[in-house]
């Protein structure tokens, strides 16, 4: 990894450069997180978040702190892999998703809906999509519609957390009260668990976006606020993987700060530029 600059573009001296490399190696070898595909600026920001939290002023201090405090490993790992933490975050994009899904469910010819939540983190996104599908199924009386939502991530611990489906009340703040009551069980004043009626739609599995082949035959792929952390070359490769994953007419949904580029820009049609929603052409059978 060619990290060599600080937040203010100042050159690091030889000692700081050495300790930064040691931190990167620690992340790779101890935390088992491969950051070589992340943007340098992102990794630097994430490390500095933990430096500030631990009151370490230099990379040398933080490296020594990391070596001497085993609990810091988990905190650094969480900071590096931080992701969506609320249901229906960016409500405008979810309104568009709702329109797409409602159209699918209303179409009696459509017997199956397959969705891939790529980089699903702790599960808010796939469960949030499951709520939209479930509500549409009830509205259009489609009890027998086959629904499969596959949620993937590289963090096995966070996948285990997602399977449990327990969330803090603040993570449900974007959901209407009737939806919370319908799809969640209140555990205590601050925690809610996803009901089994919703869990049945979602399957969580380990998947490395870079190394593993894409899933197939998907109607929708959501990969929001994930690819921004990869370098441009890897982003272009991932876009092509998502294209391969989709059925003709299927949708790719990215984060608000993410945009298609490379070969994929020519392959996809723009469905909603503002919400970063793209569509695989209907006549493409690749």
TrEMBL record:
Cross-referenced Gene3D superfamilies: Chemotaxis receptor methyltransferase CheR, N-terminal domain, Vaccinia Virus protein VP39
GO BP term (any one): methylation
Catalytic reaction list: L-glutamyl-[protein] + S-adenosyl-L-methionine = [protein]-L-glutamate 5-O-methyl ester + S-adenosyl-L-homocysteine
Domain CheR-type methyltransferase: start-end pairs: 8-281
EC number of the protein: 2.1.1.80
Keyword tags: Methyltransferase, S-adenosyl-L-methionine, Transferase
UniProt-listed PROSITE patterns: CHER
Molecular-function GO terms, alphabetical: protein-glutamate O-methyltransferase activity
Pfam families found in the cross-reference section: CheR, CheR_N
UniProt name for this protein: protein-glutamate O-methyltransferase
Species of origin: Methanocaldococcus fervens (strain DSM 4213 / JCM 15782 / AG86) (Methanococcus fervens)
Upper lineage: Archaea, Methanobacteriati, Methanobacteriota, Methanomada group, Methanococci
């Amino acid at each position: 990894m060619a990290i060599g600059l600080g937040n203010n573009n100042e050159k690091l001296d030889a000692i700081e450069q050495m300790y930064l490399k040691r931190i990167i190696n620690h992340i790779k070898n101890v935390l088992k997180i491969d950051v070589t595909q992340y943007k340098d600026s992102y990794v630097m920001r994430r490390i500095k978040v933990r430096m500030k939290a631990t009151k370490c002023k230099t990379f040398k201090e933080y490296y020594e702190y990391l070596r001497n405090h085993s609990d810091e490993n988990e905190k650094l790992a969480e900071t590096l892999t931080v992701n969506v933490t609320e249901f229906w975050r960016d409500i405008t994009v979810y309104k568009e998703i709702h329109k797409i899904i409602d159209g699918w469910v209303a179409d009696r010819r459509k017997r199956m809906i397959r969705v891939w939540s790529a980089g699903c983190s702790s599960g808010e996104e796939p469960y949030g999509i499951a709520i939209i599908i479930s509500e549409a199924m009830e509205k259009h009386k489609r009890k027998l519609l086959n629904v499969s939502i596959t949620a993937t991530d590289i963090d096995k611990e966070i996948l285990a957390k997602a399977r449990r489906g327990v969330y803090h009340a603040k993570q449900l703040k974007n959901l209407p009260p009737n939806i919370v009551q319908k799809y969640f069980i209140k555990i205590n004043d601050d925690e809610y668990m996803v009901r089994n009626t919703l869990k049945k739609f979602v399957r969580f599995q380990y998947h490395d976006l870079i190394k593993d082949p894409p899933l197939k035959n998907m109607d929708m792929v959501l990969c929001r606020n994930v690819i921004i952390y990869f370098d441009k070359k890897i982003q272009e490769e991932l876009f092509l993987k998502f294209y391969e994953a989709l059925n003709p007419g299927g949708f790719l949904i990215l984060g608000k700060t993410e945009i298609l580029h490379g070969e994929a820009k020519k392959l996809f049609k723009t469905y909603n530029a503002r919400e970063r929603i793209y569509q695989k052409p209907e006549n493409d059978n690749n």
